[in-house]
Design brief:
Helices cover 19% and strands 22% of the residues. With 174 residues, it is an alpha/beta fold. It has one domain: Rossmann fold, CATH 3.40.50. Strands 2-1-3-4-6-5-7 form a 7-stranded mixed β-sheet, covered by helices on one side. It is globular and about 35 Å long. The structure holds S-adenosylmethionine. S-adenosylmethionine (SAM) binds next to α2. This is Methyltransferase small domain-containing protein. InterPro entries: DNA_methylase_N6_adenine_CS, SAM-dependent_MTases_sf.
C-alpha cells in the first residue's frame, strides 16, 4: 500500500511499493514469535519485510515461504496443499487488501498486515470489519515513505489477527 500523491502520480503496477525497514522493525519487537515459526510473506516484492525478519535478533530461526504475482505465484490462487503457517505478514496491495486478509486468515494462526489507518473507516467495510475484527492495532506514529521522496499522504498501522492467544491484544502506538 502507498498513498503518496496518488492523484498526481502514476501508481506502480501491482501496487509494488517496498516497506521501509523501520516500519517492519517496529512490529517485529511486538510479536511473540515462538520457536521455529513458519512464516509466509504472501506478496514479497523485493523482500523488504523478509529481509528484516531474517536479520532480526528478535525473530528466531524460522521457515519462510512467499508468493509474488510478478514471479507467477498469485497468493489468491496459489495451492498451498493444506499447509498452514504460524504467521502471515505483509504490506498487501491496497486494491486486494480484503482478499489478502481473508485468504491469510484461512492459512495462518496469526496474520499481521500493514494497512492504511483509514481502511477502518469505510461504511462499505463496516460489516466486513465486524466479521473480521483484529485482535490488535499498532499505529505508526510516524508516516512512512514508500517512494523515498517524502512521507506518505496517510497514516498506517499494523493490524493483527491472532487466534493463539499468545499475542497482545488492544490498541498500541509504535
Ligand atoms: C505494497 S507492495 C509490498 C511488497 C512487500 N510485501 C513489501 O512490503 O515490501 C505489494 C506487492 O504485492 C504484489 N502483488 C500484487 N498482487 C498480488 C497477488 N495477487 N499475489 C501475490 N502478490 C501480489 C505486488 O507485485 C507487490 O510486490
Amino acid at each position: 500500500m502507498s498513498a503518496t500523491n496518488r492523484a498526481l502520480t502514476k501508481r506502480h503496477p501491482y501496487d509494488a511499493y517496498s516497506t521501509p525497514a523501520w516500519v517492519t522493525e517496529a512490529i517485529v519487537r511486538e510479536i511473540v514469535w515462538g520457536t521455529d515459526p513458519h512464516i509466509l510473506e504472501p506478496c514479497v516484492g523485493q523482500g523488504a519485510i523478509l529481509n528484516v525478519l531474517v536479520n532480526s535478533p528478535v525473530v528466531p530461526p524460522a521457515y519462510y515461504d512467499y508468493c509474488e504475482i510478478q514471479e507467477d505465484r498469485d497468493f489468491l490462487t496459489y495451492d498451498f496443499n493444506d499447509r498452514r503457517f504460524d504467521f502471515v505478514i505483509t504490506n498487501p496491495p491496497f486494491s486486494l487488501a480484503q482478499e489478502f486478509i481473508e485468504r491469510s486468515l484461512t492459512l495462518a494462526n496469526c496474520v499481521i498486515m500493514l494497512l492504511r489507518l483509514n481502511f477502518l473507516a469505510s461504511r462499505q467495510r463496516k460489516e466486513w470489519w465486524q466479521k473480521h475484527p483484529p485482535t490488535a492495532i499498532h499505529v505508526l506514529t510516524k508516516r512512512p515513505s514508500f517512494t523515498g521522496k517524502g512521507t506518505d499522504a496517510t497514516d498506517y498501522a499494523w493490524f493483527v489477527w491472532d487466534t493463539t492467544g499468545r499475542q497482545k491484544r488492544g490498541l498500541y502506538w509504535l
